[in-house]
């Protein structure tokens, strides 16, 4: 069946690349306004920051390079005023650890709360965060219809800027799309920035590939993504449970789904997606020991070891995505190739050691392109976010929530095509 799809799509590639439904990512970056809490001088005044979630994505984990708090505390003119987590002892420990660090003065007076409702009720004006970093399990947020999971909606109504970690939800894609539209409305009314952490858009390799596409001036025709994950340090059972994490595409390879959307300037065609996978019955030699990893997860809910998908974009291009959960160690093995008439762009290892190679039209040479690695992608993302909070200038905000909702939907379409049911709106056990 996959071969049939490829033969059909190759015969149709001569059609016009531009469609009426083609979604423009650039539209989200063009909205500029003065924020209600905008600071008159980026060099003189503080941005007060809070965290919802005291876990690894914001405070570090051996699973990967994530540690938002360490990167943010290195930024000038920030003060941390709140950490929200039901585990109050963990939240207090996070404050204590950072208070004794090099930037400990930025954590003085940081309060802890069991939920964000308590934070909103009890913080005084001088302690109320200007912006919130959300890093919580996906089933706890991203809803418009369920009040207990309507975190973004509630915080937006309270006037909070937000940077939200993916997955942005475990709710049905239609509901998340409606939430995106509602958040955009509130953001416009209250002059808020509500962004999502698809940080590869700030990666020097992705930035360079985007610039090369613009310079070459020819449309990309084929995308080939390979996202190979290390698994031996992923101990959290929820990560291995598709009912809680969404599975490997929604939780992880969604970054490549988003990168393909971003670079193609187009949307996935849902009815074109074909996918197959190697299921959880394949035993992994270096699985973390019980009770971590998948040992307590029901067999039918465990994640695939490998997934391959083929798909078409609305502008006529085609693509493939190969995700595996097979590598040992700590470094992922990731590659993204882009092909068009006369050219090839190869992105290598964007997470650890980014590199880009290009073969230009009318050339046989594959040449490495120098990259600007002055900042890592997370730092650049946070700099753009803080600048937008202070000034209202969203020119470097590359993924607002409504944009991310489309990546979320495409990630679920691939997951569903690989044999897993989409979210039905029920809560995981």
Automatic annotation (TrEMBL):
SUPFAM superfamilies: Glyceraldehyde-3-phosphate dehydrogenase-like, C-terminal domain, NAD(P)-binding Rossmann-fold domains. It holds the Pfam family ox_reductase_C. Residues 48-198 form the Gfo/Idh/MocA-like oxidoreductase N-terminal domain. Residues 201-343 form the Oxidoreductase putative C-terminal domain. It comes from the Eukaryota. PANTHER family: D-GLUCOSIDE 3-DEHYDROGENASE (PTHR43249:SF1), UDP-N-ACETYL-2-AMINO-2-DEOXY-D-GLUCURONATE OXIDASE (PTHR43249). This is G11131 protein. It comes from Coccomyxa viridis. The gene is g11131.
